[in-house]
Structures are given as C-alpha cells and as structure tokens.
Amino acid sequence: MTTRAAWLAILCAGVSTITVGGTAVAQEPGASADEEIVVTARRREENIQDVPIAVSAFSADALDAAGAQDLTAISQATPNVTLENSRATNSTLTAFIRGVGQQDPVAGFEQGVGIYLDDVYLNRPQGAVLDVYDLERIEVLRGPQGTLYGRNTIGGAVKYVTRRIDPDDATLRTRFAFGSYNQMDAILSGSIPLSDTFRVGAAVAGITRDGFGENLTTGDENYDKDVFAARVSAEWEPISNFLVRISADHTEDDSSPRQGHRLLPSGISGSSPLSGDYDTEAGITLLGPITSNRLEATGGQVLIDWSPAPNWTLRSITAYREDESESPIDFDSTAARSFDAPVVYTNEQFSQELQVIYEGERWALVGGAYFLDANAYNAFDVYFPGLTQLTIGDVDTKTWAVFGEATFDFAENWSLTFGGRYTEDERTSRVVRQFFGPGPSPAFGGPGVIGTTEPVPTFRGTRTDDAFTPRVILAWEPAPNLNLYASYSQGFKGGGFDPRGNFANADVREGFLPEFVDSYELGAKFSLFDGRVRINSDVFFAEYTDVQIPGSVIIPGPPVTFVGTVTNAGAAEMTGLEFEGTAQFTDHLSGALSFGYIDAEYTEFIVGGVDVSNQRDVQNTPDWTGNASLTYSVPLTIGPTPGTISFTGSAAYRGDTQQFEAAIPLLDQPAFWLYDAAVYWTSDNDRWRIGLYGRNLSDERYITSGYNFPGAATDNSVLAFYGNPQTFTASVEVRF
C-alpha cells in the first residue's frame, strides 16, 4: 500500500470540490467564470472557494442544462461518490462516499451518508432518490460531517436545497420533456407575493417512462417509471429580520416492480438466463399478496429565522416525515414460488433542531441542539417451496445532540476552525421470526402457524451509544485566490440489532457495535486568470473502525432459513485524492475535469475467528472515478429572440467495482465508460431553454447492484440490476 506520506505529497497535484461541469452538469452558456457559488456546507452561507471542506455544488440551471432527472445523476461528475437506485426499486437510494455507505434498506441498518432535504435529515433511504424539480442546488460534502450534521454522516452528506420564493415578483416555470421509451415529463412551478410580507409557491411534477425491459411472465413493464411529486411553500416576513417558512411535499411512485436479471439457470423451473438484460420472468405478483410496487412519501417543515441583533441569527427547524412502500421481490426471477419475498416498509420521523449563528469580523460561530424521534418498520415473507418465513423488524430511534463549531481569524490570512458534537443514540428493536405453511404468512393475509418456529421467535432489545465527534480545520490564504487547509474530523454511526438475525445466538442478541471514521485531509482551492480557471483538490486518509457489514445467508435446514449476519469487520483504511476543475478557454469554449482515486482496503476482517481481510474488498467503491466535458457556445437568434446555443460532450469513467465485500465474478462490474452529449439553446432573457440530450450513447451495460444466493436451496438465485441504457430526450422550458 502507498504510504500516507507519499499520498500527502500528492497534494501539489491537487484535488476536490467544485464542479459545475461534467456528465451531470454542463457549464451554462454565458455564465461568468468568476461567478460566486454559494453553499451552506457549514450551516451558513459562504463562497464555495472559501470553504475549507471538500464540497461540490450543482445549480438547478446547470442540472437542467444537462437534462438530469434525479439525484443519482450527479454521481457521474463527483469524485469517489456512488449514488444509485437500490436493487428492486426506483425510489430507495444507495449512497457511498469515500468507501463509506449502506446498500441494505431494512429497518435496523442506518445509512453512512446523510441525505438532507432543506437541512432536514432523511432518516431512511426509502423515497430518497429525489427527482430534480423546484430545485435551487445540490451540495455534496465528502468526508465525515459529524460536527454540524450529526449522526450517520461518517462518509459525507448530500444536500438537496429547494428554490426559495421570489419576494417581489410572481414567477411561473414550465418544463416538458419527451424521449426514448415513451418518456413524458411535465413540471410546473410558480410563486406569487400576496402582500409585502406574505408569499406562496408550489410545484408539481409528473415523470413517466415505459420500461427498458419486460416481465415475460406477467406482461408488465420492467424498469419503467411513474412518479408524481408536489411541493407547496409559504413565507411570512413581517419585518426584515424575521422569517417563517412553511413547506410540505408529497411523492407517489407507482412504477411496476423492478425485478432482476437471472445470471444462472434455474434448477426448479428450468429457466435459462434471458437474452435481454432488462427482462425478467418474475412471477411473484401473480401469487400475491403484494402485486405492485408502491411508494408514498410525505413531509413538512417549519423554518424560523430571527436576527435579534446585527451578526446574530437564531434558527429553528421543525420537521415531520413519513413514508410507506411495498415491494414484491422475486429473488429467483422465475414464475415459480421458489424464493420470493413480499416486503412492506413504513417509516416516520419527527426532528427538531435549534441553531445559533454568529458572523463577525474575526469570529464565526454555529451552535445548537438536535432531537430525532423515529420509527422504522419492515415486514417481509420469504417463500421457499412448501415453507414461508416471516420476519418483522420494528425499530424505534431516539437521538439527541448538542454541537458547536467556531472559526477564528487569529492572524492575517489564517483561520482556525474547531468544534464538536456530543450525540446520544438510543435504539429499541423488536424482531419477529416465525415459520408458516406455504403461501403468505398471517402478516400478509395467509394461514396460521404450522408449528415450526425458532427457539427465540420474538426478540426485544435496547442499546444506547454515545460519542463526541470533533473537527479541527486550519486554513491559510497566502494569496487572494488561494485557499489551503488541513483538517481532522471524526464520524460516528450508532450500533443496533440485525432485524433478520437468529436471536438464539447470544452474539446476535447483543447487537452490533457503533462504527467510527477518523479522517485527515489536506486541500487546496484556487483560481487563475481572473477566475477563468478554478481548481479544487484534496488528499485524504481515513481510519475506519468496527465497520458494520450487513449480509444475509441461507441455512439449508431443515427448515430452510433466511438469516441476517451483521458483523463488525474490524478495521479499514481509505487513502485517496480528488480533483475538480473548470476552465473558460475562450469566450465560446469551456471545459471541466474531475477525477478521484481511492485505495480502500480492510486491515482486519474476522470470520469464524480468522482474519480474511486479504480476501475482502470495500463494496461499491471503484478505485478510479473520472469525468471530462467540453462545452462550445455561440450566439444564435431564433426569430426575434436572441440567445446562445451550446454543444456539450462528456465522458465518465468508473473503475472495477465489487457489489459485496467478497468477490463475485458474475456480479462484479469491470471498469467502463459512459458517453453523454447535449445541445441546448437558451434565450438571453432566460425565458426559453430548448434542449436535446443523449445519455449512455454507446449503450453500455453495467451492473449497479444485485442479489447473490447461489445453491439448490435458493434455486441458484444470482440476479443483476443494470444502469440505464442509451436514451434520448428533448425538452422545452419556459419561464414567465
């Protein structure tokens, strides 16, 4: 392994934070190269070039210009970041940053990357694949963010920031998109000031598309999309230093169940792998009890900002969210009921955050307190031939924290940031595991118990974890356009109980331990040629201890048993670099380049008392990620309307990726490239934008996730899920 000292020496080559170019984000025509990009990575508004943190920002206009449809689009242009739809779903998010993340969405497992909607933490990944509408920007914070953002941000955080209401003028925006696979999207948003002190806004989106494949058993679409989303907001500003903002959102996903592609022949049905990667023969929806994929997610928040004195702000963020989803998972992907699982998820959360913010000439301070009360519930049957296993996981989480971070300009061009957060995380779990006769269990409308049960059919347990997570940053600006920084930060994620575990085992009853990340980072941000070139870079080293590794295995029995195997792997190290830059070469030609490298390896991974770390790799973490794009823009007048037409071509690279810690050749994805292109015209008055977008032009087939259950007891159920194929989209946007 390359030594830490050697990596730190690479700092001069630079790396990390600010792309507004790339596959997901093409540089906007006519945009000033030195235009200020404002982010709230430290819970207060700052120029991204002044923030001593590895953070990327993507504006709504840039995302629209690239034809990005949802949150996952930005991962192609962000170093060392993976954002994907979880297996068997359109709306559940799998997120990894710098080798830290979580791909199993069942109750009891927490994400390692925090997802925020307007500074409200989304406690569960269901409904977290947020579609791009009514958006101001997306921020990606890499590395532990435990001080200001708290629990479960040990890998980083992703912030989806919605558009604020114009206090002076009424606005109306419409966007229509048509494309491959009968894509038809319609987005309408607007706002109006009803008085000098009160204004309202609303947005609605309908996003539909036929499937990339077909279910040959049911005739349903596979990989289709049918999403309706809406958001309303109101702002009351009776005086200049006092604001109340109330917002609510609702999402419905009625897409067909997304089923996987078999990679091995079935020993029960005789089915062979299908020729179409997006096709399936899954028959679970014909057998019930869940016949469709469904998600409903609703949330609301109240934000209060009060500035009682110059430089001081008091902020309150009160929020409630809930979601309910159903997913019929056919592990064997055949018409036979040999290995199927209907699943129900329900989540709800209430959170309250209080902040005190001070910004003076030499001091800046953010402090506050946070409280979360959440419940995560899931129930699923696992159908084996002649036998059904029911599992219910019901987890209550209560978390409170106090935090503070201060930045002190202690000398000319020098600043020191120091802070910490104390968190107490209490988790109470109820897990039910029982066996029933063939067909649905009583939880899904089936018959009663037939007498076979585990020694501990119901488990109840509570554990409390607490931690203090510090952060220290030393920043130096030796020149007006140069920002150098060194930082240390720590992240913490609480322990829990495996909702699928065999609680007859004493170790399973004790639960799994919390995990920690200690991260060290050196970074540089600078601009050249009057801001026409921007380069942001970093190198980092992270020590990851008590790594939580969720998994599941099949015990042949009798009876056959589906068992969770969450363990603490021991330790891992991540060493890497990141680079992001943009350049305005001429008045007409601009480009963007980003890349990341990470050497992520386990240093301890105990299985059965034996260290197998040399046989395990960090999942969903390619060693190299990269993106390059060029945009050429020239004036073009259409009719009486002057504007600019832009042509963008981009290429994104992802290195070899393992889906799980152990290598699985059938599922692991070799390195690949994705090529995108766009041509779009924007009027000079920003009223019109017309675009044509092509994605995955080479029609690359690449695996994003999968299930791995080989063997006769599970009918050799090894399934793959794929990224989107080649698509083309035309769009028209009008702003009034």
Folded structure, characterized:
The protein is mainly beta and 736 residues long. It has one domain: Maltoporin, Chain A (Beta Barrel), CATH 2.40.170. It is built from five helices and 42 strands. The strands form eight sheets. The chain has a 22-stranded antiparallel β-barrel. Strands 3-9-10-7-8 form a five-stranded mixed sheet. It has a three-stranded antiparallel sheet with strand order 4-5-6, with no helix packed on it. A hairpin with a 2-residue loop joins strand 25 and strand 26. The radius of gyration is 25 Å and the shape is globular. It starts with a helix and ends with a strand.
**Helix coverage percent:** under 10%
Distance between the termini: 57 Å
Give the biggest beta sheet.
22 strands, antiparallel, barrel
CATH second-level architecture: Beta Barrel
Strand residues, percent: over 45%
CATH superfamily: TonB-dependent receptor, beta-barrel domain
Top-tier CATH class: Mainly Beta
**Rg (CA only):** 25 Å
Tally of separate domains: 1
Principal-axis shape equals globular
The average pLDDT value, as a whole number, equals: 90
Low-confidence stretches: 1-33
Count the E strands: 42
The secondary structure category is: mainly beta
Give a brief outline of the structure.
This protein has 736 residues and is mainly beta. Helix content is 4%, strand content 55%.
